[in-house]
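Input record (one chain):
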Amino acid sequence: MHHNNHLPPAHRHFDHHRLDAWHIAKQALIEGMAILNSVPRGYGKLKDQGQRALCSSFTLTSEGAARTGADRSCRMRWARAESNEAAAVFEALGDLKLAEQARIGAQLDLLWRLSAMLTGLARVR
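The corresponding structure, as predicted from the sequence alone:
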């Protein structure tokens, strides 16, 4: 069955598009993955953990946006924990001198903003 009333992709909006936190999580994911992809061999576990934490923070923020009440609060708390885990990975990368300090600093700023936003979103409404 064909419907002519479907909006083109550019005009489709999901619940997460209304969240500033989701846009920050997406930016942190994109920029963080670029940093992690430049990490030299021999740090695979740290790199994998950073990738997993960034992905989880992003997807949990997305999922939480579509939920309400305690379900929403739970997802946002999980997303916050994952963003904090990602921040710890980037702090370690900086301390190990495995990435440019300016890029690490910018990534930590994004993750700090995300964590603060998720703290507010985690309050049960």
